[in-house]
Amino acid sequence: MSSDLQQTRADAQDEKSGPCAVIKSFDQIGSQWRLVVLHDLQGAEKRFNELKRSTDASSRTLSRVLDDLEDLGFVDRRMEEDAPVATYYSLTDKGRSLCPVFDEIEDWAGDWLDE
């Protein structure tokens, strides 16, 4: 972690007796793979292998990330027991509440980042 980022986090923690809401939010959603999966699930419910193909994550990474997101309340898991067994993932209300945030980030990126 860069010293500037460490200092920013330290400053944020000094202002209040804990991290600010932005830092707390990024602690939950800020990993690369969590963001990729959350963004990918915006459109519709997907099966594990669909997410694996669309995100290019390894099975192990995707499984870990989906478990984390489910534990944090961003993703629901639904199992169909019919043969073949299928596991579906979708955003919860908490996860869907991030959709406008992703839209704003995409708008910002379009204005400020080289494509």
UniProtKB/TrEMBL annotation:
One example GO MF annotation: DNA binding
UniProt keyword list: DNA-binding, Transcription, Transcription regulation
Domain of life: Archaea
Transmembrane regions listed in the UniProt entry: none
InterPro entries associated with the record: ArsR-like_HTH (IPR011991), HTH_HxlR (IPR002577), WH-like_DNA-bd_sf (IPR036388), WH_DNA-bd_sf (IPR036390)
Pfam families: HxlR (PF01638)
Domain HTH hxlR-type: 20-115
Protein name according to UniProt: Transcriptional regulator, HxlR family
